[in-house]
Amino acid sequence: MNEKKDNREADPFQRTRMLLGSDAVEKLRQSRVLVFGLGGVGGYVCEALVRAGVGSLHLVDKDKVDITNLNRQIIATWDTIGMEKTEAMRQRLLSINPDMEITVSNCFYLPERAGEFDFGAYDYVVDAIDNVTAKVDLICRAREADTPVISSMGTGNKLDPTRFEIADISQTSVCPLAKAVRKALRDRGITDVKVLYSKEEPVRTGLRTPASISFVPSAAGLIIAGEVIRDLTGFS
Fold this sequence. Notes:
- By secondary structure, this protein is an alpha/beta fold.
- 38% of the residues lie in helices and 14% in strands.
- It has eight helices and seven strands, in the order αααβαβαββαββαβα.
- It has helices at residues 3-9, 14-20, 22-30, 40-52, 85-96, 132-144, 176-187, 217-233, and strands spanning 32-36, 56-60, 101-105, 124-127, 149-152, 164-168, 194-198.
- The protein has a seven-stranded mixed sheet with strand order 3-2-1-4-5-7-6, with helices on both faces.
- Strand 1, helix 4 (40-52) and strand 2 form a beta-alpha-beta unit.
- Helix 2 (14-20) crosses helix 3 and helix 4 (40-52) packs parallel to helix 8 (217-233).
- The model has no long low-confidence stretch (mean pLDDT 96).
């Protein structure tokens, strides 16, 4: 018998099943998650979700893989430079779980594109984009649809991944992006959104473009994925 066929008939989620139980594994298989942003944070969110057994992902990003992504983004290799990030991620995820369902949208999310997404059709929304206006709008849309949402705050100019934590947006401090998002949401009457943020003071580089390193956005993405998985399975 073909070795690959033997492997496909085995249970790739055996170790997860031992930890969470079969009901939770089935819940993850049936779950649909909408992920905005496939960069340093969002890429690792997707990686952890597919390896945990989430059965359906909708990937949203407009960028192509660039040489400057090699230092931190899981989809960035010399072979993928120039590819649409959605396509690079789609291929990677299917190489891990060929049975999962993947939908892609090659676009930057902006309020005027909200009608292209049925936020109520998903079990969870992950925001891993940088634009404040877009972040606030998609958070509001998810809330209106009564779909759980988690938003990543700033991970650039950071060196200590142990300073990340999950909190309500109202409890955040230090992070400049969290401050801007918190104010914008408060102006819309929203004060209780789950976010990942860091209490680490940003490293001052004197540059406009945020600096980054391999082990910080990756850690943020894995923490977010862990929160999503625990919420979906009831282990929170």
